[in-house]
Write a structure and sequence with these properties.
Blueprint (H helix, E strand, L loop, with lengths): L1 E2 L18 E6 L14 H8 L6 E2 L4 E2 L5 E7 L6 H17 L3 E6 L5 H11 L4 E5 L19 H9 L4 E6 L4 H10 L1 E4 L5 H7 L4 E7 L21 H10 L4 E8 L10 H18 L1
Helix pairs in contact: 1-8, 2-3, 3-4, 7-8
């Protein structure tokens, strides 16, 4: 079920569901956040703030107005039940995919990526994942819970298997996670230096892009639940996105904005601009 009571559309996402190729929806869930909650408010924050942007991206030389894009609002999620919340997100993603469209999700905490990845893997057995983040998210469990924002990429690995997850910007995690990654994922710590090389190997393959915005340094992006100093700059993130132009993206998400931790509004503006670029990458 979708909650459209306070719905406003993201800039450029004004087509109907039937005529659209890309379908944006919000997943306002932060039920497993372990430090500072608040990402549930991100979807409703980015929509009005997106009108501070232009629809045209000079980075990609593409314009949202040239594509068929739809914003269907936020998933109506139950309180206090993580599995039911994930099931609801998965149901929306499944409906979008079944209609031959690409899901674009705004989180919410990072765990919301999992059901979308699982549904896309049902259609694309050879699904690969490009993951931007400050954190490994590779724990087997966190405080006894297998479903957590700290375990989401490990659960994604349960779905797609070895050699199909490519992680960038990682600078925080348990030693055991970094060791585990050596045998199971491609983990590029601290930066995105190997991204172009990776992108070249993924040409023509179905790719899911998940961007945890805390990959950015807190001096750029303070509005998040678990800020981690030492991150990449916005210019580096934009350059990384441009370097992936032409990949076969079948879905994507932008997660972990907690807007009220940055009263200046800069973090929300960063999220909006990132979402615009990701939208365009999915559209070509």
């Amino acid at each position: 079920m979708l909650n459209t009571y306070t719905m406003q559309t993201f800039i450029g996402f004004d087509k109907t569901f039937e005529e659209s190729n890309i379908v944006l929806f919000g997943a306002p869930f932060d039920g497993t956040t372990s430090y500072r909650p608040g990402t549930r408010f991100a979807p409703t924050a980015v929509r009005p703030d997106s009108y501070g942007l232009e629809t045209y991206s000079p980075y990609l030389d593409l314009d949202l107005e040239d594509f068929n894009l739809c914003d269907i609002g936020d998933v109506d999620l139950p309180f206090g039940n993580t599995q039911r919340a994930l099931d609801a997100i998965g149901e929306i993603a499944e409906n979008i995919i079944a209609e031959g469209k690409k899901p674009l999700m705004v989180g919410g905490e990072h765990l919301v990526s999992l059901p979308v990845i699982q549904k896309l893997h049902e259609k694309y057995e050879d699904l690969h994942i490009i993951h931007f983040d400050a954190h490994t998210d590779l724990r087997e469990e966190y405080l006894g819970e297998e479903l957590s924002h700290a375990t989401v990429i490990r659960r994604a690995w349960d779905t797609v298997g070895d050699g199909r997850i490519f992680q960038f910007g990682i600078r925080s995690g348990m030693k055991s996670e970094f060791e585990w990654a050596k045998s199971h994922t491609h983990l590029n710590p601290f930066n995105t230096d190997t991204l172009q090389e990776v992108a070249a190997t993924l040409k023509g393959k179905p790719v899911y892009l998940t961007i945890d915005l805390d990959v950015l340094d807190p001096s750029v992006f303070a509005g998040t639940g678990t800020p981690e100093p030492g991150g990449i700059t916005m210019k580096e993130l934009l350059a990384a996105l441009v370097s992936m132009k032409g990949l076969n993206f079948v879905g994507a998400d932008v997660v972990e904005l907690a807007p009220h931790y940055d009263a200046s509004g800069v973090s929300t503006a960063v999220a909006c601009k990132t979402l615009r670029e990701v939208s365009l990458l999915l559209s070509i």
